[in-house]
Amino acid sequence: MTTEFSTSDLDHLFDALVTRMEAERDALCRLDGVIGDADHGVAMLQGMSAARDAVRATNGTLQDKLNAAAKGFLNAVGASSGPLYATGFMRAAKAAGPRQAMPRKDTPLLIAAMAEGIAHRGKAMPGQKTMLDAWAPAAEAAGGDGPLTDRLDRVAAAARKGAEATAGMVASLGRAARLGERSLGHPDPGAVSAAMIVEEMARAFRG
Amino acid sequence: MTTEFSTSDLDHLFDALVTRMEAERDALCRLDGVIGDADHGVAMLQGMSAARDAVRATNGTLQDKLNAAAKGFLNAVGASSGPLYATGFMRAAKAAGPRQAMPRKDTPLLIAAMAEGIAHRGKAMPGQKTMLDAWAPAAEAAGGDGPLTDRLDRVAAAARKGAEATAGMVASLGRAARLGERSLGHPDPGAVSAAMIVEEMARAFRG
Amino acid sequence: MLTQKLINDGDAAVDEMLEGVLAAHGDILRRPEGSRRAVVATDGPREGKVGLVIGGGSGHEPTFLGFVGRGLADACAIGNVFASPPPQPAVEAAMAANGGAGVLFMYGNYAGDVMNFDMASEMLEMEGIEARTVLTTDDIASAPRDQRDRRRGVAGNVFIFKAAGAAADLMKPLDEVERLARHANARTFTMGVALSACSLPQTRRPNFDLPAGEMEIGMGIHGEPGVRRGPLRPADEVADEIMDAILEEMGASRGDRVAVLVNSLGSTPLMELYILYRRVADRLADAGLAIHKALVGPYCTSLEMAGASITVMHLDDELLPLIDHPCRCAMFREG
Amino acid sequence: MLTQKLINDGDAAVDEMLEGVLAAHGDILRRPEGSRRAVVATDGPREGKVGLVIGGGSGHEPTFLGFVGRGLADACAIGNVFASPPPQPAVEAAMAANGGAGVLFMYGNYAGDVMNFDMASEMLEMEGIEARTVLTTDDIASAPRDQRDRRRGVAGNVFIFKAAGAAADLMKPLDEVERLARHANARTFTMGVALSACSLPQTRRPNFDLPAGEMEIGMGIHGEPGVRRGPLRPADEVADEIMDAILEEMGASRGDRVAVLVNSLGSTPLMELYILYRRVADRLADAGLAIHKALVGPYCTSLEMAGASITVMHLDDELLPLIDHPCRCAMFREG
Ligand SMILES: Nc1ncnc2c1ncn2[C@@H]1O[C@H](COP(=O)(O)OP(=O)(O)O)[C@@H](O)[C@H]1O
Ligand SMILES: Nc1ncnc2c1ncn2[C@@H]1O[C@H](COP(=O)(O)OP(=O)(O)O)[C@@H](O)[C@H]1O
Ligand SMILES: [Mg+2]
Ligand SMILES: [Mg+2]
Ligand SMILES: [Mg+2]
Ligand SMILES: [Mg+2]
Q: Candidates 2.60.120.10, 3.40.50.970, 3.30.1180.20, 3.30.70.3550; correct CATH number of D188-323?
């Protein structure tokens, strides 16, 4: 296990993200079917697949690859997830910088950067029952200190907890907002997939 | 029990036919669904209801009432059953003649007349898997001798047996003809409803 | 479990639909005085013109009543769901369409329709109105090629009626309209598949059972079983099977022109129809045939049945201008 | 149990549909050079004309791409099923539609669409092309009246796009086209019910569960849950509930004119739509409103969902000629 997170580690992260989304596609669609339009799993799988292809096709720095991921995801998907994840990946690209590798201890910053991008693009506030309710607590946990694995564990746990908490929220943004009280009791699909993505990132960063 | 079959007996016969078709509508539709277009029960109920209404609205002879039944049935239904039963009722009207009542012992002739009308209109041959495969044997049995109740029992049994036998025939007329061998094993809905109608007529004629 | 429908009363569905159609398309359609189940084009029938009268069961909308209007059919007789109209509305439609040059009945070849329309023709004869009949028999799956006259009429109706309607609109005499109608029918070929059952408004139960993962090949437009049942296959393979059969029947030469209809039987959406059309266009191009006209959509339906049919009309110098002839119907417009 | 569809590969369905559309309607539509998911009208855009660009997810056909053509939209950006297109095709559509007088984006008000089209507008700004945006918000069930700008855009798109497209075709300047588009949107009201779920080509599973005997009232056009779930009721009662809500919102005066659309969400057949229309016409007559234009059919669908929506556009002297303005699109023609 090296102390560096390299471009090839990034390639593997995107492989893992695709595998995870493949496994979860139908479950995410079902969640979206309850309060949305049932396509979230399809969008996330298509987006991550395109991102993975773009990342693999790019021979460059972490920044280049993450920018390619952003573009690949966006052009394959559109929808809500497209602009949100594209902006997230672009912020992560900036945070990773034009390097072939970065210290693993700094990788939690990528999660914080993703969250910032998503918040910037979607203009959601925590508590509105969106993917930000998983990304924002993850970002907050990413800022903590202690050994890397502990921090990453806390990051993943925070995202998961955040996603679970959306079940208790009334949506006020996105497709589900028109549901009002009827959205209560059902987790937000975007928050649930966010927790999965954070978990895969944490696993990959840990090494 | 009178020995005459009167216009008011005819009214009651049509009541019974409507009640029977009400009870059998969905079963006949299911049979038609297997080898046809699933509407036979609907057509027979609509037709008999309109015939009943027309019969009741006509203050005239048996002939008048049966002609009214023909017109009522036809105009309510169209389809295959419409012209067939309309022609059948018109022949029966002729056989009954311009009388208020007819001897019960002659009533089997009405069944034979119905069968003739149906054969004339549809130009079917026995064995082609149509309602004629119930009506034709009924008509033949109607020509037999012996006490009325025995004759009517034989008429009803012949119709039922004829209808059952259609399951073993390959259709060569009507909607099911395009099915070829696939029609084998399924009784013809028109023959099945014909056996029911013959049974109701036999019951009414018996008194 | 009853199927879900937006209706009031199953027995009233056809009459209520008709009221809605007349309310929406009063500029194009009206009911002849005293008639309940016939409609006539407001500006179709005229002195000296052959009257084209179409008809059949309901549940196939826009077929049949949607094709009444200037340039196409003059009048239509409307039956119950999947049931031929009785003779009476056919007579009323014919009387309304009659311009003194005779009337042509056109409808799909079904036992019930033949009996009812033949009775109507006899009644018209007594009125001194000459009524001829041309049956449509475009469903190549419904009988072998040497028994063409036993075949059913299905979605090809659209092109066949259109050709006949144009001929009548061009004031051709009855003999000629009849000849062109037969000619149009002889050159029109359809085959379809069904992916789910429909249900009648009265029973609200699936008309037949089709297990998941299967389709019915050669299905009629009333849910009558087709040629055979087989596993559901990809759209391109379905299009290929149908196009193989149609191209074989049609016997066209490279350079010939065709009109094509990719038709939804009801609930199959445009997305699937265009996926089919893409393959159909490829196959026609491979065969060296030029697509002169393409229709894609629900033109001849079976209530909410899922499935599609493909129709190809083999055009020639006579048919081409008839297919291009403008028409203005309640549910179909060209030119 | 997978739903039954005539497709090849769920992920390829939109692209294959688009190929079919271009093959069938090459006289009206083409793809801009190098573009995968944009279409432009062959004779729409022209020097000095405001370019009207519409777009949204697929699965609503004929909305959106079917409304591209002379007199209506100049170009369209095409997303995945129920998913906003990304910015790139929106930019390509805008470039193709641009006649130097600015571009107007029009689409339904959904979070995803807003984000993607806003990104497209930013990219166009960098190219020196002025792009304005008018969101459609006609679904009265999707938010209270005082939050009109949070409402969804649904089947009313047809009338709203048509009014804006006519204004652009009449060579009105960008300010005026934008004003009329907003005016058209403000006067258009839609509400729908769903009777069954649709399913995505990728998952082929019902998008949501709707127990037999129930309907979803105020359902969106992507299967998003509506206002509430209730027992399935007769067509007249459904029409009444919707018309009560629309008439209340519209606040029209006796003698006013309206355009009406009774729309199928997919598998609801014409028979049911006309039964609904019959009641809608009665209700409008009772309110003293004159129906100037009536559309009945599948205009804005959700794949094979069962259900229907009713749209009423409250016409005035500005909107009436725009609704009557001729248009010639791949899947919609007027005049
Ligand atoms: N403004 C927003 N900010 C953050 N997340 C959002 C916003 N709008 C929607 N989302 C997220 O997007 C998810 C839906 O994504 P997806 O199903 O792919 O797109 P769509 O809603 O276009 O179908 C929601 O569950 C929610 O988490
Ligand atoms: N030519 C014919 N002669 C006698 N019976 C016929 C003929 N054609 C059809 N039938 C009968 O009609 C029945 C179908 O009636 P129905 O379902 O009411 O009409 P349709 O076939 O028009 O839907 C068949 O089961 C068959 O018994
Ligand atoms: Mg979604
Ligand atoms: Mg039948
Ligand atoms: Mg029938
Ligand atoms: Mg979506």
A: 3.30.1180.20
